[in-house]
Amino acid sequence: MTSTALPGAARVSLRFGATRLVPLAIALVAFVILFMKPAVLLARDWWTNPEAGHGLLLAPVAIWLAGRIGVRIGAEPQIWRGTAFLGIAVLLRVMAELSAELFVMRISMVVALAGLVVFYWGWLQVRAWWLPFLLLVLAVPLPELVVSALSLPLQFKASRLGATLLEWRHVPVRLSGNVLVIPGYQLFVTEACSGLRSLTALLSVAVLTAGLWLRSPAARWLLVLVAIPVAVVINGVRIFLTGFLMMFVGPDLGRGFMHVTEGWLLFLVSLLAIGTITLVFGAIERRIGRPRAEVRNALL
């Protein structure tokens, strides 16, 4: 008969694993209990609200990136700092529940996740996972107050740009706020056509591509900033094409399936523009970085 006793080192390893696993399991159960409601509401918005649909892509990508980056070597827990983060998350969760504020309630989940990471692996691990955490923040829909405040200026800007392009093509147009009047038709730029949806999605894509393929903070910030005028211009072009095609081809091109298809095609154009700009910025980074590396090697 052979003995089934484990060596001392193995017993120590098992005990250590249990001491870490049990608190982690308790923390995960508490997290599920506390944040089940905002998580379910967030997932429902991702699925049903077109303004928040980009979250269906960002959340899985954030999880994949965190797994791809992994836990840094030598990561050490920071219990007190992690506990402070968790306390802030719980406080935000309670305050959001009392005030029925969904945005803060959902952001509290991200703060709690950061607190768990700090508790078990330290603040440097949060810095290593900065891109996944930023994507999770971007996956949270903006508050309705912010959406309403941004939509109207974007509607006016897109309407002015569309009217300017129509005049450039010698189409008679009269602009009144967010209503374009062309011979035989009226184009009303609604909140859904303000471009906020494409702007939010394009900013998320810009953040993702900047974090993955660019190295310098300046280039990353510049790419994110460039995404804003790209989204505005593309939306203005969409309004121009809608009016132009309605007048010279047929009214059916300004509504229904054709209108939605036109929006998707132009969004693909904006994605292509962001990809092209990313390649240009990457080439500039490599060109600037090469002389610096040569000078550094010469000094060494």
How would you explain this protein's 3D organization?
With 300 residues, the protein is mainly alpha-helical. It has 2 domains: 125 residues, no CATH class; 147 residues, no CATH class. It is built from 10 helices and 3 strands; from the N terminus they run αααααααβββααα. It has a 3-stranded antiparallel beta sheet, with helices on one face. Strand 2 and strand 3 form a beta hairpin. The longest helix has 44 residues. The N terminus and C terminus are likely disordered.
Q: Average pLDDT, to the nearest integer? A: 82
Q: How large is the count of helical segments? A: 10
The helical percent reads over 70%
What structural class do you assign from the helix and strand content?
A: mainly alpha
- Widest sheet, order of strands: 1-2-3
How many separate domains?
2
Cα gyration radius (Å): 25 Å
Major sheet, described briefly? 3 strands, antiparallel
Number of strands: 3
Give the CA-based shape: globular
Order of helices and strands: HHHHHHHEEEHHH
List the helices and strands and how they pair.
Layout: H1 8-48, H2 55-69, H3 79-99, H4 102-121, H5 123-128, H6 130-138, H7 144-168, E1 174-176, E2 179-182, E3 185-188, H8 196-213, H9 217-248, H10 256-299
Antiparallel strand pairs: 1-2, 2-3
Helix pairs in contact: 1-4, 2-6, 3-4, 6-8, 7-9, 8-9, 8-10, 9-10
